[in-house]
Amino acid sequence: MMRKIHSRERKNGLDAIFITQMILIGILVLYVAVLLFRKGESDTPFAEMEQAVEGVLDNSDMKEADHKMFRRNYRLNANDYDGVMLWFREGTMEVDEILVVKLKSKEQSDTVVESIEARKKSRKESFQGYGASQTKLIEDSIIDVRGNYILFVIKEDAEKIDQVFQKAL
Asked: Cα–Cα distance between 55 and 58 in angstroms, integer?
């Protein structure tokens, strides 16, 4: 025996579907807004970012690079940016490296990322075939572009440094 659906029951079912659709659309709009906000420029001063990242480094065996070394390794001029911080570990078999760049404009982003990719490729080629642990660290490195900041980390605890970087934004 078939049951006849009354128009009132049909309307209540449509109302529930409509409400569910509106909730899902609201969640989607909120999600997109969060993504757009997150990609925006950070107003964090570079000195504050520097302090936050340096706070998690084991500086005892890492050395801060000067602008000449930044230019030599990345083929970029540090004066073209609002801030550059480069830390590295000295030694022929060492690969640990942390770079933070604050861009003056978003147009600089591609140039910096390309330079980082070239540096990463060069480092990987240097250790290919004999430095397995170094090659693994390079492969697992992090390049994190967030608005007007870029982070590049080759280090065992790269994720921890990336988390601090993101929080400082």
From this structure: 8
Q: How far apart are the first and last CA of the chain?
A: 65
Residue 98, number of CB atoms within 10 A of its CB: 25
What confidence tens digit (pLDDT) does each residue in 5-62 have? 555 555 565 677 888 888 888 888 887 766 665 556 788 999 999 999 998 886 668 8
CB of 144 closer than 8 Å to CB of 165? yes
CA distance 75 to 112: 9
Alpha-carbon distance 141 to 57, whole Å? 16
Enumerate residues 6+ apart whose C-beta is below 8 A from 69: 86, 88
Strands 83-88 and 149-154, bridge-based pairing: unpaired
- Report the alpha-carbon distance of residue 55 to residue 149 in Å, rounded: 18
Q: Which residue from 121, 95, 110, 120 is spatially nearest to 145, judged by alpha carbons? A: 110
Helix (H, G, I), strand (E, B) or coil at 83: strand
pLDDT value at residue 11: 58
The whole-angstrom separation of Cα 98 and Cα 116 is 11
